[in-house]
Amino acid sequence: MKGQGKMVLNSRLKWVGLVGLVLSAFSLFIHFLLARFTEDGVIEYQSSITVFSWRPIFESANFPRTSPMYRRLWGPIRHLESLHPDANPRGNYAVTDPSSQTNGFIFVRIRGGFHEIRNSICDVVAVSRLLNATLVIPEIQSTTSSKGISSDFKSFAYLYNEDQFMAALAKDVNIVKTLPKNLKWARRKKEIPSFKVPYSASPYYYLNQVLSVLKKHSVVELVVPEGGCLQAILPPELEHNEELQRLRCRVAFHALQFRQEVQELATKVLFRLRAPGRPFIAYDPGMTRDALAHHGCAELFQDVHTELIQHKRSWMIKRGIVEGKLRVNSAKQRLSGSCPLMPEEVGILLRAHGYSWDTIIYVSGGEVFGGQRTLIPLHAMFENVVDRTSLTTPWELNRLYGHEANIITSSPRTPPPIEKEMKHEAWKTSGPRPRPLPPPPARPKSYNIEGWWGWVAESDNEPESTVMELRTNAHKLLWEAIDYVIGLEADVFISGFDRDGNGRPNFASLVMGHRLYQSAALKTYRPDRKEVSKLLEEIHDHLYHANHTWLKSVRKHMRKRLLDGLIEASTKSKPLSFLSHPVPECSCLRYDSNETSFHASSPSPQSQVQAALRVVHRCPAWMDSDLILRSKDKDNEEDLDEDDSTSSGLFFRRSGENHESGGGDSNNKEEAQLDDLEELEGGER
Ligand SMILES: *[C@@H]1O[C@H](CO)[C@@H](O)[C@H](O)[C@H]1NC(C)=O
Ligand SMILES: *[C@@H]1O[C@H](CO)[C@@H](O)[C@H](O)[C@H]1NC(C)=O
Ligand SMILES: *[C@@H]1O[C@H](CO)[C@@H](O)[C@H](O)[C@H]1NC(C)=O
After folding, report:
1. Which of 81, 376, 527, 547 has the most CB atoms at less than 10 Å from its CB?
2. How many A from CA of 132 to the centre of ligand 1?
3. What is the model's pLDDT at position 153?
4. How far is CA 93 from the centre of its chain?
5. 158, 236: one domain
6. Which residues contact ligand 1 via a Cβ below 6 A?
7. Which one of 101, 131, 174, 243 would you pick to mutate in the ligand 1 pocket, going by the greatest count of ligand atoms within 8 A of its CB?
8. Residue 270 near residue 485, CB atoms below 8 Å
């Protein structure tokens, strides 16, 4: 016994030594990193700083911020500059002490991914207010500790800041962290009434069916499986319906803050993105397996990817999530605008619109179906394409996840049984002698590709998720939280798709809704996928050598869609998810008094937009005090667009050749000259 104890001690000492060594190596590394950062703070020509694994490369050191070109690509959308966030209660909506009158407790269990969780939380808060109930902090099912996440967190707190949530809504709804003891006990014994609520339940469903049960039992459980539980557009005859909408805005845009560690890392990533001192584009591909399956886009991929999508689609058809046939003509779907724009197509749009090859693009998305392969063309067109992984260290991400128990992954997923070929007996007894050697014993079949899709060729049934996969799903929520912050703050946002696997507004839609609320004038492109596919078909066989006419039509389209896409969202997205288009309820107008006289002759485009978005509420007076000085020149963006006649078929050349020859300097210069010309011409007027 004693000897054993000594040995344990010995090996422990060794471990301590090893850990010490690793730690000191690590601190050395950090020192180097810090030194780099502080010394190379200034960016030079052909930029020299390295931000983690990203080494920004720029064409020139100076980045003109005053050119018309800059304004066209990065400047605010003039027509929306007077739109401001205002989610405060208006008029006679009572901000009473909600704790004084409660009809009972509402306990909520939420299923789904990032955007579904967000939608659901806003809905349940609104429902609690509607019923004068006390809300227990919702349980997010994909982040409970049975899913392999760290036990440091209690579901909601894995993603969001509980205290901030409760404090921000203190005037609206009474929120508690847990059920009182006796009710908890009843819940465990499954004695409390439970409702599985549909996606867009009417408020009258709650008032007529849930309320009486709530009053009787003083507690109900709501199970929210579909990413929402209250109509997006509330019936106009419902009392205070606009106030409930504004409450949803207060929840989504103010009360729901990410957990501090997540927020901090997101801020760090943002800081690293901004380090080169240039604006950036955030791009959300929106290519999830569910969405592709739902919209029948399998054939846009190949091989195993097609199989995987089809597999999901047949699963969805079986469950009635999708109606229609299993086999769909994906090319037709794409032409009708029902499939996501591929990264290559988005890249072409951006290049055609005028973004140069050294533009910084942050690719978001916890899941990009098809993997890095689909992003290759984008990387070829743009030098500085980054994502979460290139701007964080694995160490930083691990810290985010908390202490997770080790999962022994030694047992690879057992493959479905394969029929053994029983030929040995026959071989022994038949045929002439001498014989060849018997066949080698069949090797046990194991999936050569580590991971999730090995089963597809072997089996019709998708295997159960392993704990590891469940854990990755939870991590995905954190990644998407970071992407959400980046997408919100980006100078330009563009998404390849705005629908999820249920045909409802997706992650990107929520980001766009939040941008519309918080900073409406920031550029958010909403290309019309049908139009875009038509445009791309035109240059189908010479994608990278478009002529001037074509470029012009792309630019016109992109500019037009800045506003048209917004108006379209108000009719197509808002009825499905209020958060994807929280206007006009949560916005107000701030106009300087001289605005109207300026466009006296005709109705200003500004007022047209406002009419379309139906915003009439004037911002409260305190907002007027810090009226920003509008830029004096009232250049029309339209004029700017008509103007750049210099671009030609050369436009894409550089990117294509650069990656073959590795150099492409001469083209570099050519394009630089083109850009200069473009700017000059813009400036002359
Ligand atoms: C909730 O409280 C308000 C204010 O006290 C009251 O007007 C309303 O009728 C109550 N609603 C329900 C469903 O109890
Ligand atoms: C430009 O390209 C489009 C599409 O390839 C073609 O239809 C059009 O005729 C071309 N225009 C000129 C002026 O070359
Ligand atoms: C509006 O016009 C008046 C005079 O017509 C001027 O005094 C005032 O400064 C102008 N306000 C703004 C915000 O330009």
Report:
1. 527
2. 6
3. 87
4. 34
5. yes
6. 101, 103, 131-132, 211
7. 101
8. yes
Residues 40 and 138 in one domain: no
Please work out whether the CB of residue 352 comes within 6 Å of at least one atom of ligand 2.
no
- CA–CA distance, 102 with 324 (Å, rounded to integer): 46
Q: How far, in whole angstroms, is CA 532 from its chain's centroid? A: 22
d(CA 627, CA 629): 6
Q: Is residue 570 part of a domain?
A: yes
Residue 499 in 3-state DSSP? strand
Closest to 127 in 3D by CA, of 200, 176, 216: 200
The beta strand positions in 372-449, using DSSP E, are 384-387
Is 217 a domain residue? yes
User: Is residue 89 reached through a cis peptide bond, with omega within 30 degrees of 0 on the bond before it?
Assistant: no
- Count of domains observed in the chain: 2
For residue 479, CA distances in Å to 264, 266, 562, 647 come to 13, 9, 28, 38
- Residue with the smallest CA separation from ligand 3 atom 9 is 594
Q: Which domain holds residue 536?
A: 25-82+258-285+341-355+390-405+465-685
Residue 649 shares a structural domain with residue 597:
yes
**107-152 pLDDT tens trace:** 999 999 999 999 999 999 999 999 999 999 999 988 887 777 888 8
Whether residue 477 sits in one domain with residue 508 = yes
Cβ density class 167-176: b for 16+ within 10 Å, e for less: ebbeebbbbe
User: How crowded is residue 321: how many other Cβ atoms within 10 Å of its Cβ?
Assistant: 17
CA distances to 121, 480, 484, 668 from 115, rounded to whole Å, are 10, 9, 10, 41
Question: Do 506 and 340 form a contact (C-beta atoms < 8 A)?
Answer: no
Same domain, 68 and 107: no
Local structure of 108: helix, strand or coil: strand
Name residue 334's amino acid: R
- Read off the pLDDT of residues 402-461 as tens digits, 9 standing for 90 and up: 888 776 554 555 555 555 555 556 656 666 666 667 666 666 554 444 445 556 656 667
- Cβ pair 135, 174 in contact under 8 A: yes
Q: Is residue 205 within 6 Å of ligand 2 at its C-beta?
A: no
Ligand 3 neighbours (beta carbon < 6 A): 592-594
Type of residue at 425: E
Interval between CA 586 and ligand 1 midpoint (Å): 23
Q: Which is the closest atom of ligand 3 to the Cα of 593?
A: 1
